[in-house]
Design goal:
With about 120 residues, the chain is mainly β. The protein is about 10% helix and about 35% strand. It is built from two helices and seven strands, in the order E-E-E-H-E-E-E-E-H.
Length: about 120
């Protein structure tokens, strides 16, 4: 699958379109087909200063899209649900939330501070 990432810390021109493996979906995870992302201050600071260890590091911690796969223990979400999420730099699987009546661009641009406190899947 395609992603935006970088192999060496530096300015914005260090970003590349890269191919990565499809993530494994754990029992409490959702796999989201991303329709829109936003660049937030964490993305900018990581790209500028955090040297990736090994493979390229993927950026885009705030995103919106459609649920493509649901983990075995997940309730409250189903394939085809529109969701937005704010990522976590310590984990590949981010916080998720539903986004009724938002398209991918408006959901991705929603600031992380507007998300409810509930984290993870129910």
């Amino acid at each position: 699958m395609k992603a935006i990432g970088y192999s060496a810390a530096g300015p914005a021109d260090t970003l590349d379109l890269i191919e990565i493996d499809r993530p494994e979906v754990g029992p409490r995870d959702l796999l989201v087909a991303v329709k829109g992302i936003s660049v937030n201050p964490v993305d900018v600071k990581l790209r500028a200063a955090a040297q990736p260890e090994g493979a390229a590091r993927v950026l885009g911690f705030d995103a919106a899209g459609v649920v493509a796969e649901v983990g075995a223990s997940v309730t409250g979400y189903k394939i085809g649900d529109e969701v937005f999420y704010a990522g976590d730099v310590t984990r590949a699987a981010p916080m998720r939330n539903s986004m009724p009546s938002m398209n991918g661009s408006s959901g991705a641009s929603r600031p992380a501070s507007t998300l409810p406190k509930r984290r993870g899947c129910r």
